[in-house]
Structure formats: structure tokens, C-alpha cells
Specification:
Blueprint: H1 12-23, H2 27-33, H3 41-50, H4 57-67, H5 79-90, H6 93-103
Helix pairs in contact: 2-3
């Protein structure tokens, strides 16, 4: 039986707040950098982080680009896997290929 509830909360608000804080950005500054109008950037980002509204994929992609995070990180339910995504994002392309080779145990 799965330990995931069918009514599970999205991990996006928590992950977005953590990534923004780690980058040292205010909600307003991140919103503006991601192309949200400066007069609504703070309130929209606040709504995203509180889970009241969710950004569409294009907006989330811009946010993830500004935060130097893979977009999939924001949807990752498991903390351990989210940590792996962060670490893999930080390594060079050659190291990523080595990681993939390590994980591909059949070859």
C-alpha cells in the first residue's frame, strides 16, 4: 500500500520558497526576474508559495531558470530525491554522464 495520500499537497510551494530563500531573493525580485509584472510580482509569488495558486508550466520554467534549479525539482515529492536533483544540477555535464553510467547497471 502506498503512503501517498490521494489528497497529497503539492510540493511546489515548499520547494519554491526553499529555492528562493537559498538564492537570497525576495518574492518580488524573483517574480520580476521571471517576467512577472513588478506591481503584481510580490503578491503572485506569495500566492505560489502559500499554495493558493500554482504557476503555469512556462512561468515555473522561468522561475526555475532564475533559481538555477531543474524544473522537476519543484514537483518532487520525496525530499531525498529532491536533494539528489539539486546535487546533480550542480555538477558538470561529464560528471552527469558518469552518474548515468553508474545508475545504468545493465551495461
Amino acid at each position: 500500500m502506498s503512503d501517498r495520500s490521494s489528497e497529497a499537497l503539492s510540493p511546489l510551494p515548499k520547494r519554491l520558497m526553499e529555492a528562493r530563500r537559498a538564492k537570497g531573493l525576495s518574492q518580488k525580485k524573483l517574480g520580476i526576474l521571471a517576467g512577472i509584472d513588478e506591481f503584481s510580482a510580490s503578491s503572485r509569488m506569495n500566492q505560489y508559495e502559500k499554495g493558493k495558486h500554482a504557476p503555469d508550466f512556462a512561468t515555473l520554467k522561468r522561475l526555475s531558470d532564475e533559481l538555477d534549479m531543474p524544473t522537476c525539482y519543484f514537483y518532487c515529492e520525496e525530499d531525498w530525491l529532491a536533494e539528489i536533483l539539486i546535487r546533480v544540477q550542480l555538477v558538470s555535464a561529464s560528471h552527469r554522464r558518469k552518474i548515468l553510467q553508474l545508475l545504468n547497471l545493465e551495461k
